[in-house]
Write a structure and sequence with these properties.
The protein is mainly alpha-helical. 79% of the residues lie in helices and 0% in strands. It contains seven helices and no strands.
């Protein structure tokens, strides 16, 4: 699952179209389930947070909010502050900024 997060992270760097396709293929569900089932695996939480941040764009905003991604990232940040707090803060700040637009 860590490897899958790494692959998705790299794919999501390309374009908003690719980000939207990843989300349409239910990657958010897979990542969310992995984060819940493996909440004590630091490397997975860190990679999941990174890929989730990479997936943010206008086209994926509603799905990210519906999947409760910020809350999952906050839990990861609480459990692994040095590894996930920066990513969780980035997510919250980005969502707030996008909501104002």
């Amino acid at each position: 699952q860590e490897s899958c997060c790494g692959i998705l992270y790299n794919l999501a760097c390309d374009s908003e179209y690719v980000k939207a396709r990843i989300v349409e293929e239910e990657a958010l569900d897979a990542i969310s389930i992995s984060m819940v089932l493996h909440k004590n695996v630091k490397a997975l939480q860190q990679k999941a947070c990174r890929v989730l941040n990479n997936l943010i764009c206008e086209e994926t905003l509603d799905a990210i909010q519906a999947a409760n991604v910020p809350e999952l990232m906050n839990v990861a940040a609480f459990n692994f502050p040095s590894e996930c707090n920066k990513e969780a803060c980035f997510m919250v700040n980005t969502l707030e900024r996008m909501a104002r637009i």
